[in-house]
Structure formats: structure tokens, C-alpha cells
Design goal:
Largest sheet: 5 strands, mixed
Strand content: 15-25%
Radius of gyration: 23 Å
Helix content: 25-40%
CATH topology of the largest domain: Ubiquitin-like (UB roll)
Number of domains: 3
CATH architecture of the largest domain: Roll
Shape: globular
Number of helices: 18
Enzyme class: oxidoreductase
Strand order of the largest sheet: 1-7-8-10-9
EC number: 1.17.1.4
Pfam families: CO_deh_flav_C, FAD_binding_5, Fer2, Fer2_2
Organism: Rhodobium gokarnense
Number of strands: 21
GO molecular function: xanthine dehydrogenase activity
């Protein structure tokens, strides 16, 4: 019989916290500020967009204790069970300011100061993992932090200066690492069941326990990274009870690379998947860092991006173009679907009551295929797609042998451009062929107008992305690929 613990346990800076009354809608930020009066962590947007609420969360992984910057405003409190939460108050020691804080002071990098604690925490995470970062790495680390005073250059200068003011090896999170890990391990891994005011939250003990919980409570909200569910709570005031949290389940975080391709457990985050994705799908090296900001990539999961069925999710069109499949599970039974067949209609997926997404398999591209993925958004970084297009092409000489084209933002679901594909296959891979085939976009898609883009703009973008793909895979025109931005391996530190 599964052991049950009726409290969540975690470390907050130097304190052990045990809470018996926790609701699924409770946020980490509210607990930090209201219950613990640690008011350095700010609420700016309450949707994971501005970074003022950034804290570090350390969790035990197969490779050891890993710390990551996350958005406390949409991180739900129940999810930090068996974690170490670090706020800005933890940085300064008995000898004064932390090196990152001192660098911010020395470089005059704080203006109004509201965003500063969150910026400090992002730079702290970068300093721990890349003590002497380049400018591109700094900019990537700061993707999820907005400075409304527009004072970014001094902040970048502070990130560079911090390495001269202190040694990460002497930081408390490094020197106390073994003791912290031992304490977290001492918190047993039983199933957690907590509630407040009748609202219930569950943390399964393992994957088998989750499969039983899911089948017994098909109405429950599954919470992985909460980058969407968190907004249901903070913006829509939606009651998500009962909620089952799965981001801690090791079995759902497995990553397998083999000759057949890449298999990701449904709770693998974008940051955790990044290195494998870059190795196996080099064309996604630039695309992947444009999914959210650093904090969002540390929380958001590939499985969650698929399971919520959003027509503007970044990963579904990319994975559809690559021929990905999903593994759905109900108790011990599993079924495999082509990813494109999983999406039935707006907000509707081929998922029966009690089903859950267990894993995603992405086939290794054949050596003779040409692949690309493009994201069009108002902001380059940390923004939702207006249109996302992905392509996979195999040429027979100069003729299209086969092609897969998938788009997000063009229909009620992520969807292939099947009529455009049919118009291209067997034809010469030329500008003339592409121009004619692009007319079939009107048969494949009827995009809507919204605040991100008009329907006419989306239709034009789809045609232009196909033309761009032609130019980048042929001698017709000059390549227009953007230069690659180096991405720090600082998805956390080991």
C-alpha cells in the first residue's frame, strides 16, 4: 500500500519548512512574501514574463543537486516539495554584499530597483555555472528579466564584473552542497496529499502511483511545469482542484538518445532537453532558446506544451514536421499516436478519460533530409509565436522526394500543410514550383486575426517562410539564416 505524507517539506534559504495546509492554487511567491515576509522577491506581472519574482529552486536529479532560476509567481507551492528554495535575501553574507550584488552596485546597474532582485538572481545562477560569461550568454540568461527603466548595458557590465569580485567555488550553495542534498534526501518520497479549504493537491510517489491516481481521478488537473496552469491561477482565478503534480517524477524525466531518435519523458523541461535536441536536431539550436525566457525553459515541459493542445505552442509544429509520436498511458495500457493525430480540434485532443501523456519519441532525421524551424513573434525573446513554421525535406537530385510542412498559429490546432506538400512532391525544388505550391496555403489554413497578428499577415508569413526555406536549401538565393546565439549550459549547475 502506498505510504502517504500529509505535509509538504522543503528548505527555504536556511530554514526547513513543513506545511500541512497547502492548496493547489497557492503560489510560491505568495508564501515567500506573505507567510515568510521575504519581500525582496517582487510580483511584477504574475504571469512569468517580467522576472521580478525570480528565485532559485534546487532539486535532486539523477546527476545530483541542480539549481535553476524560476518564476515564483507561477510556481505553485506544492511543487517545491523536497526542494531548496533560495531567495535574494540568502545572498549577502556576514562580510557584506554577494559578488553579484556588489557588481550591480559598482556598475550602477540598479535604477528604480523594482526588477533588481530578480535580475540579481538570474545573474547569480549564471555566475554559479558560467563565472566568466560572454555577452551572448549574459543576454540569454537575462531573457526572462525585464528592466522597465531600459538600463540593460550596466546590467550586462555587472554580469561581466561579478567574476572578479568572488569565486563561485566559495559560494554557500557550493560549499554546503552535500549537506543540502542530504537534507533533501531525508524528506521521504511518499505520496503527498495536502489540502486547504477543501481544495486538494497530490504528489504521486512514483509513475505507477500517478497512473493509478490519474485513472481514479480523470477530472484532476495535471501540473507539470505550471507555465500555463500558473496563469489559470493568477490571471483567470480558476480553481484547479484536485491537482496532481508530476514535475518531480524521475520516470517522466528520462531522456534517451539512440539510433532510432530521441525519446523524452513528458515532464522533461526545455532546459533539460536542450543539449540532446541540439545534438540530434542541429537546426533547432537557434529555435530552442527562443522558447520563453530562461526561467520558463527551466519550468515548462515539452509534454505540457503538447498536452495542453494550444494552437500556438512552439514545439508541436516542429515535432510534427520531424514525424514525432506520442505515447499515451492509462494504468498499464499504452497506445502510440502520430503527434499530428493527437490534435483533434481547438482544445480537444485524442485523450480518453484517465489517459496521460507519458513520453514523446522524435525520430532521428535521415542523413539526406533538410530541416528548418522558424518562429515569428513581436519580441525576439520570451514571446509567444504569432506563427511557427517547420519543414523537413528530402530531395531526389533537384526534385522534391518528400516534404513535411507544419505550422502553429495558422489553425485551431498545430497542423500540416498537406495540400502544399502534395503540390511540391515530385516537382523541381525551384522558386517557380514554390510560388505555385504556396497558393495551396489558402486550402490548408484559414488563419484568424488577433492581437498577435492579422489573418493576412499570417497567410503572407507562411508563404514567405516556405520561400525562405527554399533559399536556405538551394542555390536559388543567398541564405538568410540568422547567426547562432551561444546558449549557456547554465540550465542549472551541478
Amino acid at each position: 500500500m502506498t505510504a502517504i505524507r500529509r505535509e509538504i517539506r522543503f528548505l527555504l534559504n536556511d530554514d526547513e519548512i513543513r506545511l500541512t495546509e497547502v492548496g493547489p492554487n497557492d503560489t510560491l511567491l505568495d508564501h515567500i512574501r506573505l507567510a515568510r515576509r521575504l519581500t525582496g522577491t517582487k510580483e511584477g506581472c504574475a504571469e512569468g514574463d517580467c522576472g521580478a519574482c525570480t528565485v532559485l529552486v534546487g532539486r535532486l536529479t539523477a546527476k545530483g543537486l541542480r539549481y535553476e532560476p524560476v518564476n515564483a509567481c507561477i510556481r505553485l507551492l506544492a511543487s517545491v516539495d523536497r526542494c531548496h528554495v533560495v531567495t535574494v535575501e540568502h545572498l549577502a553574507g556576514p562580510d557584506g554584499l554577494h559578488p553579484v550584488q556588489q557588481a550591480m552596485v559598482s556598475e550602477h546597474a540598479s535604477q528604480c530597483g523594482f526588477c533588481t532582485p530578480g535580475i540579481v538572481m538570474s545573474l547569480y545562477a549564471l555566475w554559479l555555472s558560467v563565472p566568466e560569461p560572454g555577452e551572448a550568454e549574459i543576454e540569454t540568461a537575462l531573457q526572462g528579466n525585464l528592466c522597465r527603466c531600459t538600463g540593460y548595458q550596466p546590467i550586462v557590465d555587472a554580469a561581466k564584473a561579478a567574476c572578479a569580485l568572488g569565486n563561485p567555488a566559495e559560494d554557500a550553495l557550493v560549499t554546503n552542497r552535500e549537506a543540502i542534498a542530504a537534507k533533501l534526501k531525508s524528506f521521504d518520497g511518499a505520496r503527498v496529499e495536502v489540502e486547504k479549504d477543501g481544495a486538494r493537491a497530490f504528489l504521486p510517489a512514483d509513475l505507477e502511483d500517478f497512473a493509478e491516481l490519474r485513472a481514479d481521478m480523470p477530472e484532476a488537473t495535471i501540473v507539470a511545469g505550471a507555465t500555463d496552469v500558473g496563469l489559470w491561477v493568477t490571471k483567470e482565478m480558476r480553481d484547479i482542484s484536485p491537482a496532481v503534480f508530476v514535475g518531480h517524477l524521475a520516470e517522466l524525466k528520462e531522456i534517451t538518445e539512440d539510433d532510432a531518435g530521441l525519446t523524452l519523458g513528458a515532464a522533461v523541461t526545455y532546459s533539460e532537453a536542450a543539449a540532446s535536441v541540439r545534438r540530434m536536431f542541429p537546426h533547432l539550436a537557434e529555435f530552442w532558446p527562443r522558447i520563453g525566457g530562461w526561467q520558463i525553459r527551466n519550468m515548462g515541459t515539452v509534454g505540457g506544451n503538447i498536452a495542453n493542445g494550444s494552437p500556438i505552442g512552439d514545439t508541436p509544429p516542429v515535432l510534427i514536421a520531424l514525424g514525432a509520436r506520442v505515447i499515451l498511458r492509462h494504468r498499464e495500457e499504452r497506445r502510440i499516436l502520430e503527434l499530428e493525430d493527437f490534435f483533434l480540434d481547438y482544445g480537444k485532443q485524442d485523450r480518453k478519460p484517465g489517459d496521460f501523456l507519458e513520453a514523446i519519441h522524435i525520430p532521428r532525421p535521415a542523413p539526406d533530409t533538410l530541416n528548418a524551424a522558424y518562429k515569428i513573434s513581436k519580441r525576439r525573446d520570451e514571446d509567444i509565436s504569432a506563427v511557427c513554421g517547420a519543414f523537413s525535406l528530402r530531395l531526389d537530385g533537384g526534385t522534391v522526394g518528400s516534404i513535411r510542412i507544419a505550422f502553429g498559429g495558422m489553425a485551431a490546432t498545430p497542423k500540416r500543410a498537406s495540400r502544399v506538400e502534395a503540390a511540391l512532391e515530385g516537382k523541381p525544388w525551384t522558386e517557380e514550383t514554390v510560388a505555385k505550391a504556396a497558393n495551396a496555403f489558402a486550402e490548408d489554413f484559414s488563419p484568424i486575426s488577433d492581437w498577435r497578428a492579422s489573418s493576412d499577415y499570417r497567410a503572407l508569413i507562411a508563404r514567405n517562410l516556405l520561400l525562405r526555406f527554399l533559399y536556405e536549401t538551394s542555390e536559388v538565393g543567398e541564405p538568410v539564416q540568422l547567426s547562432a546565439m551561444p546558449v549557456p549550459e547554465a540550465a542549472g549547475w551541478m
